[in-house]
Design a protein that fits this description.
The chain is mainly β and about 850 residues long. The chain has six domains: about 1-35 and about 605-765, no CATH class; about 60-70 and about 165-255, Immunoglobulin-like (Sandwich), CATH 2.60.40; about 85-165, Immunoglobulin-like (Sandwich); about 260-445, Galactose-binding domain-like (Jelly Rolls, Sandwich); about 460-595, Immunoglobulin-like (Sandwich), CATH 2.60.40; about 790-860, Immunoglobulin-like, CATH 2.60.40. The chain is about 5% helix and about 40% strand. The strands form 15 sheets. Strands 38, 41, 42, 43, 46, 49 and 50 form a seven-stranded antiparallel sheet that branches. Strands 18, 19, 20, 23, 26 and 28 form a six-stranded antiparallel sheet that branches. Strands 1, 37, 47, 48 and 51 form a five-stranded antiparallel sheet that branches. Strand 55 (about 810-815) and strand 56 form a beta hairpin. The protein is flat, with a radius of gyration of 35 Å. The two termini are about 25 Å apart.
């Protein structure tokens, strides 16, 4: 089989010749944001369906209303708007006879009531001018007397419908809370003489700050569902509605989004992103979700958590800025500064770092803006782009201070906004913002009475970041940290310049969150009053689990039962040995959740880099090491594919492989191989929140084929790059959890990643429990090739192709021989003629044009 696939793909990509090497690079997308955004969208759709009976498809189709306005009028209907005129061709066909010329005379009886008319005998047209004052509809009948000598004498009647002018109606405003979902229906505002025929979204021009952040769905032509943003102000939604005679009115529906105003009188404005629940900034202080809140995309922040300006919107997609512009922004809620004066020493202070583990923003500036009394934004600071920086450099967080001195900023709705410029294709260029502090009676000095955690602590597990409970219970002594080499590590940050700081008290506490069960006994981070940090510095400290506490933890873990996933919650906390201001105390607590579910992992779910083969020739292999502590059935594999837009990744192929081996690498041939897979990105509504793509272990007929792994077996989960490509398929790479578990094949032998490679973990996870019934991206909709069946097999003249859903629409096929030569292709039919194929073995490749999935079937031609 390998001969066929390799030959096939090399034939398809024969002109590509590259210099092959293993590379690491910044990630170019964010599956985490895509997944969170899709989950939020799914919740909206479920709410709409439950409340209003609108399912996901109808919600999407009614998003902008039904197009087609204004409606097409019947061809025999002559309609003119009040105050306007129309020219009508007079139809005299069939009336004229030879002889004297015809005469056409406009009659004054009956009189015209709603306008005036003039007949032009040169052009044989009637010009009708409607009066402007009509408020409804009316009809004028114009009568023309047509004569031609003594032969023809008749009257022509032309009915002209006059309709009122289109109008713009401002509907009653609705008060809406930030983030609220409401229904709005037009009632008294409607004034149409005929049945309504169409409606559509109309352009509204307002100065609402939240344009682009609110959403709405039309339920009908007169009702809509509105989903408010967090931006206060008036958001006007406009809809155009037309009736059967062509009256089209614009309805302006004002939604007045309420907002609260923050104060710095009693407590400073402080944000260090240490308490964010998820990848978005806290809604109690910020108005949009553009930036990505994380703990790992740069090193040594002032405190745990940072906001990364990554050039991706809240859904993890690049901004559409073909000519460049501003992408990510972070806007504060209004802050009341009306009680302060320029001499009150009001300062904005913050820390900023470019690049981190991403790409440097060479030409993309970072902008800070303040809002004045006239609601205009003024630039107060521009941090220029960095120019070129070495790939392996990580610039530190720099301190910035901006004094608020202009009187125009001292008002009750002051705001600050941070923005990152984005050049075309610059969505991998990162800025990292942290530790935003706004207060009066301040200084421009980098000195805060704060002692904080700067990182999330590592897991209590020795070998993994996640492990199935039964595998942990089988060898807890080997899987839970014990020796000094396996100690916890956590980084602390001293933001004060007044001396070394330590703990008054500290605590580490384990618990199982699913059933709220405490595990073991608490122990301290470090001894009380022992100094652990120098002024204005970071310090990484190592923590050993005391033997007695470790024994208790193991004993309690061994009592856990049930097949439901468990989460071990580890909480670190401390009280410093010096007084801290109240706003800083939130970063004295950090937590880490360790899954005990159905999968192994060496990573924490966040990809700081991506691993790929540069100049891939096809045949490159990489794998991640694991060990089974109990005999168990491997059912699937999850892979993190960072979204990469510069290169055609989803058209490439790879083979998923499992090997057995020892601690030093895989040995022999793979014990499982699934071939010609594509690195499609996950169905974000149904796959993991961390954006992994799931591949079930299955045969070519999509039947599940679990692989039994005996207890004590070292096994390796990896892949073979099949397609030749300038840049091969990228795999997420976690820098925060170096595992020494990554291997690649060099010529005919396996070697671990070297010290020249970034220390980290490839994000490939084996799954032993209840993996989805199908591979990722196919659980919401039927898979493209559910249960592919070929018959008769062997075949002679006709091969029947049967898919589970009984349809071949939307699929194409290719037939290859054993040398990988493509012999036949076309749109898939239920019957494929084999008349041109000589006897032998062949492979049928079926491709879903919709999902990009590929499946292979084998058949024999025998005559």
């Amino acid at each position: 089989m390998r001969l066929f696939y390799t030959a096939c793909l090399l034939l398809l990509t024969a002109p590509l010749v590259f210099s092959q090497r293993m590379e690491f690079g910044p990630v170019q997308g964010n599956p985490v944001l895509r997944s969170w955004s899709a989950q939020n969208e799914l919740q909206k759709e479920n709410w709409l369906e439950t409340t209003f009976g609108i399912g996901p498809l109808s919600a999407g189709s009614l998003r902008d209303g039904l197009n087609g306005c204004p409606p097409d009028l019947p061809p025999n209907l002559i309609v003119v708007e009040a105050g306007r005129s129309i020219d009508v061709d007079v139809d005299t066909f069939g009336l004229a006879v030879s002889g004297a010329p015809p005469q056409v005379t406009l009659q004054t009886n009956p009189p015209l009531l709603y306008g005036s008319a003039v007949y032009n005998d040169t052009t044989n047209t009637l010009h009708y001018q409607a009066d402007p004052g009509l408020n409804g509809i009316a009809t004028d009948t114009v009568v023309l007397h047509y004569t031609q000598g003594n032969v023809v004498d008749t009257f022509l009647k032309i009915a002209i419908d006059i309709r009122r002018k289109d109008k713009t109606v401002v509907a009653d405003a609705m008060e809406v809370a930030p983030g609220e979902i409401v229904q709005y229906c037009l009632n008294d505002e409607l004034d149409f003489p005929f049945e309504r025929k169409c409606f559509q979204k109309a352009d509204c021009f307002d100065n609402y700050d939240g344009n682009g952040y609110a959403f709405y769905y039309f339920l009908s032509d007169t009702c809509l569902i509105y989903l408010a943003s967090r931006f206060p102000g008036v958001d006007t939604v406009c809809v155009e509605i037309c009736d059967g005679i062509g009256i089209c009115d614009i309805f302006k529906i004002p939604f007045r989004i309420q907002g609260d105003t923050l104060s710095i009188v009693d407590e400073p404005f402080f944000e260090d992103f240490s308490t964010a629940n998820g990848p978005y900034p806290p809604a109690e202080r910020w108005l949009e979700d553009d930036v990505f809140v994380n703990n790992t995309f740069s090193k040594n922040p002032p405190s745990v958590g940072m906001a990364t300006f990554d050039g991706l919107n809240s859904g993890g997609q690049p901004y559409e800025l073909p000519g460049g512009g501003f992408g990510d922004q972070l806007t504060s809620k209004p802050i009341d500064l009306s009680g302060f004066q320029p001499n009150d020493n009001v300062y904005l202070r913050f820390f900023l770092s470019p690049k981190g583990f991403g790409q440097e923003p060479e030409e993309d500036d970072f902008i800070v803006e303040f809002r004045n009394k006239q609601r205009q934004w003024e630039e107060v600071l521009i941090v220029p782009g960095t120019g070129d920086l070495p790939f392996d450099s990580i610039p530190p967080f720099e301190f910035y201070a901006v004094k608020i001195e202009e009187p125009a900023f001292f008002h009750n709705a002051f705001q600050m906004r941070f923005r990152a410029a984005s050049s075309p294709g610059g969505y991998g260029d990162w800025w990292h913002l942290d530790y935003i502090h706004l207060s009066a009676n301040s200084t421009e000095v980098n000195n805060f009475s704060d002692f904080a955690f700067a990182t999330v602590p590592q897991t209590f597990l020795k070998n993994y970041t996640a492990i199935p409970l039964r595998h942990l219970q089988a060898d807890p002594d080997g899987e839970i940290k014990k020796s000094p080499d396996d100690s916890y590590s956590v980084t602390l940050s001293n933001r004060s310049n007044s001396g070394m700081l330590g703990f008054s008290t500290s605590e580490i506490l384990f618990s199982e969150t699913t059933n709220a069960i405490p595990l073991g006994s608490p122990f301290v981070v470090a001894s009380g009053n022992e100094p652990v940090t120098d002024p204005l510095s970071h310090n990484k400290i190592n923590i050993l689990i005391p033997p007695a506490n470790r024994d208790e933890l193991i004993a309690d873990i061994e009592t856990l039962t049930g097949n439901d996933p468990k989460i071990i919650h580890t909480a670190f906390s401390f009280v410093g040995n010096v007084a801290e201001d109240q706003e800083f105390k939130t970063n004295n607590n950090v937590v880490l959740n360790t899954p005990l579910s159905d999968f192994f992992a060496h990573d924490d779910g966040s990809a700081e880099l991506q691993f790929f083969w540069s100049g891939a020739q096809g045949g490159e292999e990489a794998a991640v090491r694991y060990k089974a502590n109990v005999g168990d059935s491997l059912r699937g594999v999850r892979i993190m594919f960072p979204h990469f837009s510069f290169y055609d990744i989803e058209s490439q192929f790879f083979n998923l492989k499992i090997w057995f081996g020892d601690e030093n690498g895989p040995m022999g041939d793979p014990v499982y191989e699934q071939e010609l897979l594509r690195p499609f990105f996950p169905d974000t509504k149904w796959d993991t929140l961390q954006g992994f793509t799931s591949y079930r272990l299955e045969d070519v007929f999509e039947n599940p084929t679990p692989l039994y792994i005996p207890a004590g077996t070292w096994f390796y989960v990896g892949y073979e790059q099949v397609s030749a490509a300038q840049r091969g398929i990228p795999i997420g790479y976690d820098l925060d959890n170096p595992c020494g578990c990554n291997f690649r094949k060099k010529t005919d032998s396996w070697i671990p990643f070297t010290s020249n490679d970034p220390a980290g973990a490839m994000m490939i996870r084996p799954v032993f429990g209840g993996i989805a019934n199908t591979t990722s991206a196919t659980t919401e909709k039927e898979t493209s090739n559910n249960l592919l069946r070929l018959f008769p097999n062997p075949a002679s003249g006709i091969l029947n192709v049967n898919l589970k859903d009984g349809t071949s629409v939307g699929f194409s096929y290719k037939i290859f021989n054993q040398l990988g030569q493509m012999l036949q292709s076309g749109n898939l039919q239920t019957e494929i003629s084999l008349s041109g194929l000589p006897p032998g073995h062949y492979y049928l490749q079926i491709l879903s044009e919709k999902t990009g999935e590929t499946r292979i079937g084998k058949f024999l031609v025998n005559r």
